[in-house]
Amino acid sequence: MTKERLRIGDEIEGTVSDFGMSGEGIVKLGAYPVFVPFAIVGEQVKIKITYAKKDYAFGELIEVLSPSKDRIKPRCRYFGRCGGCDLQHLDAPMQEEVKRLNLVRTLMKNAGLDIVVPEVVSGARWAYRNKLSLPFGSLGKHGKTVLGFYEKKSHWVVPMKSCPLHGDWADKLIAAVTAWANENGIKAYDEKTGKGQLRHLVARYVTTLSVTVVVNGDNLPHADNLVKKLDAVFDGYALYVCPNKTRTNVIMGDSVKLIHGKETPQELGAFSAVVSPLSFLQVNDEIRDRLYSDVCKALDGFEGDIVELYSGVGLLTAEIASRLPDAEITAVEIVPSAVDDARSLMKKLGLDGRVTEICADAVEYMSSLETSEKCRAVVVDPPRKGCDAPVLEGIVKADFGKIVYVSCNPATLARDLKFLLANGYTLTSIQPYDMFPQTMHVETLVVLEKVGQSKKCRM
Question: Per-residue pLDDT for 280 more than 90?
């Protein structure tokens, strides 16, 4: 069958020749690609076309006629319906190789970088997530309230009772919260109508449990009954309510209120700290500790002050300050609660004399920063959108001797590297990390140095 004749509903057979950027298999009809989720390179597959355009098509995997040796049985019964995982059908070594190749190709395509990328640093494959974030939804004609993940490319909630990416604490929490909601007749928020009270359940479990219910209102209805449910399964926890009455799909509101329990410091590597539900924290404790250690190694022997952008609750700041006792560090973070957490942590660790916490937008801070005679380094750990152009321009203008960049998105990393490499920097190291096993996401650490800088700035 030729590409000109492909129509939605057509069934074809073919051999998977490559992986796509989202981990899907690619079957080619000549030069015409058909993207097939859950298909593996080398497999002979039967496909049903679900979307067809002039230059490409998407297909549904109907049957694997010749399975790959890398194919395994997914552990989760929701895999394929839930949009949380992409790669449970692949064994661990192949998952890591797919992510590494995706990074290689993205750097080549978006930045023209033809470089050797080492193997992905990995750790535990299951029960690694310390954070749970689930939307509430409605099921059936009576509107039973459920919790789950969204289906891929939709806002339809797939009801779930468990998730193997989390520990059994998550299963117990899902059961308790859904029982509370239905026993008390509390409905899920409807994005179309703006009605309903329950929007999201957000929880974090590092050493103790923190539970936040995001509501379309000011207060948590029947909060006392939820406390009774949680008391029955957890020895200790902190319960928060987070009002969010905006007509958007943003998960959290601007504030949280503690309504039961107490804020307890979480054990985070070498430190312990209270982490606000509004603050960012890497979801994989094991890989976070390895990544942060490698960031510090990249700065070993560095002489000069350090600026850290997107510094969050200060965990990486504290690691750097502890490892570089002579460095003055300016940490910039836009979320006030995260800045408060960071200041408390620095004071507790006796680092507040060398660390200055600034609550500001990275763009505003870098736009006002002038060139310094000091040989400085900048550490950036931006969200998925990468660094805004004014941040990169500010880095170049300030003439930093070294850039340590932590990325969670290969596409925006490549974009930002292209700019920095064209403006006086050279790439000295790159390392990917499997922060999110079973998904296509990959964390990457890159180190850049100023071309022609003095030796005192070098690693």
Answer: no
